Amino acid sequence: MKVPLPKINRSQAVFILAGTSSQYTAARQKLGLSPGQAFWLTRPADLGNLQGPKVYRFGTWQTLPRLDEIQAAMKEAEAEVADLPG
Length: 86
What we know:
CATH topology: Rossmann fold
Number of helices: 2
Largest sheet: 4 strands, parallel
Oligomer: single chain
Distance between the termini: 42 Å
Shape: globular
Order of helices and strands: EHEEHE
Strand order of the largest sheet: 2-1-3-4
Structural class: alpha/beta
CATH class: Alpha Beta
């Protein structure tokens, strides 16, 4: 019998802005978070209708396509942004 997992409230989750999936995984592990607690931020829509999400920048995040749009969405959402040392 499977027990349903609780739904994660994305507004309370952490977002990781990283250039590759392996960098996302490394950052998540540095933060001690599970995949359900930290989301890889790869497009502006990931922050849709959120207010004040936490975003950690890690690795080669500057190389992401649509970076300008992602940064605009972070500003609009009033994201708390921090750089995670590599």
